[in-house]
Amino acid sequence: MPPTVAGFTARHIGTDAAAQATMLAAVGYASVDELVKAAVPASIHVDPRATSDIPAAATEAEALAELRELASQNRTARPMIGLGYYDTFTPSVIARNVLENPSWYTAYTPYQPEISQGRLEALINFQTMVTDLTGLATANASMLDESTAVVEGMLVARRASKSTSDVFLVDADALPQTRALLEHRAAALGIELQVVDFARQPGVEPAHRDETPATLPDAFGAFVQYPGASGRVWDPSDVVAAVHSAGGLVVAAADLLALTLLRSPGSFGADVAVGTTQRFGVPLGFGGPHAGYMAVRAGLERQLPGRLVGVSQDAVGHSAYRLSLQTREQHIRREKATSNICTAQVLLAVMAAMYAVYHGPDGLRAIAEDVATKTETLAAQLRGYGLTLVSDAFFDTLRVVVPGTADRVIERARALGYQLLRVDDATVGVSVDETTTAADLAAVATAFGLPDDGAPVDPEGAVPLASVPADLHRQDEYLQHPVFRMHRSETAMMRYLKALADRDYALDRGMIPLGSCTMKLNAATEMAAVSWPEFSRVHPFAPADDVIGYLAMIEQLETWLAEVTGYDTVSLQPNAGSQGELAGLLAIRGYHRANGDLERTVCLIPSSAHGTNAASAVLAGMKVVVVACDEAGNVDLDDLRAKIAAHADTLAALMITYPSTHGVYEHDVLEITQAVHDAGGQVYVDGANLNALLGYARFGDLGGDVSHLNLHKTFAIPHGGGGPGVGPVAAKAHLAPHLPSHPFAQRDDHAGGYTFEGGAISAAPYGSAGILPISWAYVRMMGGDGLRDATAAAVLSANYVAARLRRHFPVLYTGESGLVAHECILDLRPLREETGVTVDDVAKRLIDYGFHAPTMSFPVAGTLMVEPTESEDLAELDRFVEAMIAIKAEAIAVGAGEWPADDNPLVNAPHTAEAVVVEEWEHPYSRETAVYPVRALIRTKYWPPVRRIDQAYGDRNLVCACPPIEAFA
Ligand SMILES: *Cc1c(COP(=O)(O)O)cnc(C)c1O
Q1: At what angle do helices 637-646 and 669-678 cross, to 10 degrees?
Q2: Which end of the chain is less packed: N or C, by CB atoms within 10 Å?
């Protein structure tokens, strides 16, 4: 026999046939297929041929070649469209050491702060950068994009305002995509938007000062764009004062690069500042992913959505970082939720923060001055040629008046390799960025009709911000913390990034057995194309003809995802699972309303649901009614029927997760969905657990009308330390008209030939398109069979862990066959009863054994949820099982009084090197037990940088910006 070269599936799946045989023996089944068929209820099995349209698996080389071919169909024009998206130089040291480094991109959300100090420091740098530049007190880390951040800002204003008005004022010069999002989201919440031309308000712009002062309508808040979408730089102070005097709050979207030169939103009184950090070194990626930001003035910090990194201290009083105001997102409070953001944009926030660390305040200012100077130069050329600009006060964007010839100008520019913005047939927009050269300016000038005399446009003598009134020029300092000075050479930067990465535990060290999050392999081949300029340097509003490769890839991926889920069509626009939920629920809302069922607003949600479900329902304007679960963890059918009966005329939807967040395949799922349909409701199936189903059953066949998927769970997009994500929404045909559209969408039709007409849900038409090559490559290299094999291997691994640990920790829920799905919940409550050892102690002790803890106390308090995924090999699974068994024995010793309850390896975990390198060792267990409980650790030890972190201390003493260096001395 010739040697066989292992295909990608065998590289992706950690267990080979021999290992699987061993595991099957432990579980008690003869084959993997038999096991999965026993676990998945027979009534929902699909014929494997259902995945037939997915091409047979490509090799890694073939997939890369196909991606090269797709990439070559994108035209890498120079994007000068602006509207919140700018080309940027990603410093190579950041591209290589963050974006392309698994130590950063395979990390999980920092819920376990002791093993996350590196990324938490990076994120606190991000928060400091944002608070400094915006002039506000507290920033989070991070938002999904600028437009969703504006919506969140509107919601903060509504919560915090004392005004009873339902009106929110929107700047007429807002980004068009932001206006589209505001309209869609406000409608669902009963908020009335009023678009106001703030330029016509008193004192806004010198040209208008002589006009009669208009008064602003009564409102709970107002949104201003600064600088405006048109590029206009203006002074919002008077608008802010007027809104404040009526009891409203002001949300300002501000460009961070402009803020290095212009007065900060905080200085003119804005309550909330939002925006994007894309142009801080994060590639365009045809729309994302990029980190949005939000900062608030003092007094509003407890209203912030998203994650907030703060400083606390560890068990011995050392400063340490953690997520503040609750370990989990403070706002996802089920039906009382105010925001649904879960997965954010951590990896991109890290990149943007490091761009600021690398350039420092003077470097950023120099970049901004260069951009402003180049813009001024181009403006002078155009004006010299007799052209008029819409505004003479600008930073980086010009609006040029070209009556009747906009299309001609844009076509000429395009022929020269430049993308400009068509505002209307008489106006063209041009945006300059750090990558723009003098030759670019000259070429653009010729597109406007200036003679092409071959001379580059000379910035000599141009003064940045020449027409911006002096009182709008920034005077105060920013980024004065030493971190923005200390790492300016490439050597220092490389070492800083390495030092931070070394403090963290990511998939490049070992297993991250997180229930509900599917921390599977993010293969290097899948990641490769993300960095290619044909994918990374593409503006989201580029003309369709310039993005043919992207559109082809998107169409294929939509089609594949529709097929594997049993739906008719898919939108890739939502940029996280939470946003997919919202898009799906808003589609349901739109459908009911189109049918005249205005009163259908009740959303039934089982008590076991993920927190985002209820939060999304609230944000979709629905009323959440909780359905009980029975002792087996399944939806309580009697309670469901009772709730359906009680809300018969008002039922909008049921949101159900399949398999459930309890990790079991509910047998009654078809009965459940039928009951909802009989009552006129729609069924939303939360697809985050698709890794337990792919190739074996399909949501569409279970009675689902709509689902979101998490490509950052099931489809191999890395977790990035808490983002990015992609949360496509997949639906049946009747909901298709209500799926998200976008004002700048390059294409109207989607998988299956459907046209979407619902409101926008992300700032970019295809959301975080820049990372779609990852999921595309995953499906392409697995093929239909490989996807099915991955599911089987994942289910086998979970059942193997359950089978081996069951004697030590009860497995809380199983299906009728006694099997779990792709994850299992270990019940640690009996252990606590018996020994006093808590789930926290076990989680922290796992760090000493070289593991990331499983999901803690979700969905059931006092439990650990383990999802091993298909990618871990048997040796790693066994290492985990044995660690858990050893920790159990330690707990028993505590219970038996061998170690005191307040001084044992569990309560003292995790142990740092410092903890054991002490003159006098005073604990009743040895140093070896503390840090080398298993001999293999002597060579492979991960040393946590801090001891257990005091959560309450950090909330009492809220510090969310870089602490002084001495704090770590
Ligand atoms: C992860 C998850 C979500 C939310 O997805 P995000 O991308 O984090 O917004 C929703 N439901 C379930 C069951 C999940 O596991």
Answers
A1: 10
A2: N
**Is residue 570, in this structure, part of any structural domain at all?**
no
Cα 624 to middle of ligand 1, angstroms = 18
Using CA atoms, how far residue 779 sits from 51, 348, 548, in Å, is 11, 24, 20
Residue 47 has pLDDT above 90, yes or no: no
CATH number, domain of 164, equals 3.40.640.10
Mean pLDDT of 668-683: 97
The two three-digit tokens of residue 528, written as one number: 């490769």
pLDDT reported for residue 326: 59
pLDDT for the residue 4: 62
Residue 875: its H or E element: helix 874-895
Regarding whether 298 and 431 lie in a shared domain, the answer is no
Percent with pLDDT over 70 in the chain = 96
Minimum CA distance residue for ligand 1 atom 2: 688
Q: In this model, does residue 202 exceed pLDDT 50?
A: no
Residue (of 480, 260, 580, 568) closest to 962 by Cα position: 480
How far apart are alpha carbons 914 and 745 in whole angstroms? 56
Is the Cβ atom of 815 under 6 angstroms away from ligand 1? no
Instruction: Say what the pTM is.
Output: 0.97
What residues contact residue 9 under an 8 Å CB cut-off, 6+ apart? 57, 781, 782, 783, 785, 786, 789, 790
In the prediction, which pLDDT does 633 show?
A: 86
Q: Clarify whether residues 370 and 280 are in a common domain.
A: no
Domain check: are 794 and 892 in the same one? yes
> What mean pLDDT is predicted for residues 227-246?
95
Q: Helix, strand, coil proportions of the chain in percent (round to 5)?
A: 40, 15, 45
Per-residue pLDDT tens for 131-177?
A: 999 999 999 999 999 999 999 999 999 999 999 999 999 999 999 99
Mean pLDDT confidence for 793-810 = 98
CB of 113 closer than 8 Å to CB of 955:
no
Q: Give the Å distance between the CA of 917 and the centre of ligand 1.
A: 42
pLDDT at 205: 44
Residue 965: how many other CB atoms lie within 10 Å: 11
Residue 213 pLDDT > 70? no
3-state secondary structure of 916: helix
Report the mean per-residue pLDDT for the chain: 94
Q: Tell whether 256 and 401 lie within a shared domain.
A: no
My answer on whether 376 and 259 are in the same domain is: no
Amino acid at 97: N
Check whether residue 349 and residue 401 sit in a common domain: no
Contacts of 830 (CB under 8 A, 6+ apart): 810
The DSSP string of 167-179 is EEEEETTS-HHHH
CA–centroid distance, 501 to ligand 1, in Å, is 25
> What does DSSP say about strands 167-171 and 221-226: parallel, antiparallel, or unpaired?
parallel
- Residue of 329, 332, 710, 711 with the most ligand 1 atoms within 8 Å of its CB, for mutation: 710
